[in-house]
Amino acid sequence: MSDLILNICFVNLDDNVVFSSTIEGHLESLEAVFTRLSQFNLKLKSSTCKLSQKQVKYLGRIISKKGVETDPCKVKDLPNWPKLTDQSEMRSFHGFAEY
What we know:
3 helices; two-stranded antiparallel sheet; Reverse transcriptase domain-containing protein; DNA/RNA_pol_sf; Rev_trsase/Diguanyl_cyclase; 3-stranded antiparallel β-sheet; RT_dom
């Protein structure tokens, strides 16, 4: 059975997160991202760039060598969520749950 190779890039307006299961795949993904940014004359702010992180918290997720997981602090209050009483509260809860 061959090893699973995972290369993923998340982009969200100001954030770019690239992660891979191998260093070779990671370098290829970084090169592809840097090439694409360069093609469109987009720049990265070096003071906010972090490379070779073992774990990253990003949009309610934790990205690590284990993969992408939900950040436990985002769902810890879910069992104690108050009873919903109106449509506005339902929409708010739905947005949270969908996230």
